[in-house]
Amino acid sequence: MNAALLLVVGLVGLVQTLAPRPVVRAWTRVAYRDAGDAEPREWTYAAARAEGVVLALVSLVGLFRVATDDAEGSPTTDERPEE
Length: 83
What we know:
By secondary structure, this protein is mainly α. It is built from 3 helices and no strands. The protein has helices at residues 3-18, 20-31, 43-73.
């Protein structure tokens, strides 16, 4: 995966974890024609926060894998076998 995409996903997850109410409010406006009538239940904010934690953790694991693959996967000129 692209490291920039993983970084964006991690930042979205962090924002969603720290401030779930504005995120739910924004998605409610996107999802419904008349968002003024829609009232999310209280568990929606806990679910949004849990989703944010999952996104942030998945992003961190992905970024760690990208970093370790780059460090171990590309041999230097000293490590290449001579032909």
